[in-house]
Amino acid sequence: MRIIYSFLIFSLISMSVSSCFSAQPVSRLKALNRTTSWYFGNEVSSQNKNGIELRVAYTESYGETLVFDIELINNSDKSVCISPNQCYYVALDKDTTDIGALRFAIDPEVKILELDKKIEAGKAAQANHVLYSLFSVTLDIVEDAATLTEEKTEEQRDKEFNERQEHLEFLNDESDRREEHVYSLNSQKSFWVNSTLRRTDVESGYTIKGQIFIKRNIKAEYYKLYIPIGNQRFAFDYKQVLY
């Protein structure tokens, strides 16, 4: 019986290990455009059409997301609009055959709205927790006052005191956790507000910079990244290498 039990335990452990999540391969993109330069370890591809200069650099893979730095320099004589949610790529296989539908960049305005909702929900939960904590502490005080005349051993009083302290520590820890959660959400929002490329009308003589984020296609051998600006479309080619 002991042998059977040991075998079952070993089998369960083996199944658990075999079913563990494996690490996803890391993507790196190499620019295939001819006009490139290097800036802080990033290869920058440049194109110029009708006075619109566009510089694009793949910077990193963040989980399943590809990150690109975008810089638009408007040397034309008119204003042009750039919008991240109109940027997209076409995934290609080894034979440069299209292997999937277009995949568009994440819209920062949608992310900011989602975070605003989460922040407000977090603030409400934080306020409710404060009210609950005040009620709980008040209830403890009332209970203490009601039992002042009761005869209790020192051991009982110590036990009640320790229970109250543990409860207060729990309330404080929970309050800190909720506060940190809201702080984290605000930090995320600040990033999407200040660091990402957002829909902008770029006037003549002005420049705009920011990042765009697009979920990768792990099966892609190549990407053709398209960035529409006004009535023009810029295309940048990349080869994906998985590690």
From TrEMBL:
UniProt KW keywords: Signal
Superkingdom as given in the UniProt entry: Bacteria
Residues spanning the signal sequence: 1-23
The protein's name in its UniProt record: DUF4352 domain-containing protein
The organism of origin for this protein: Aureibacter tunicatorum
Source species taxonomy: Bacteria, Pseudomonadati, Bacteroidota, Cytophagia, Cytophagales
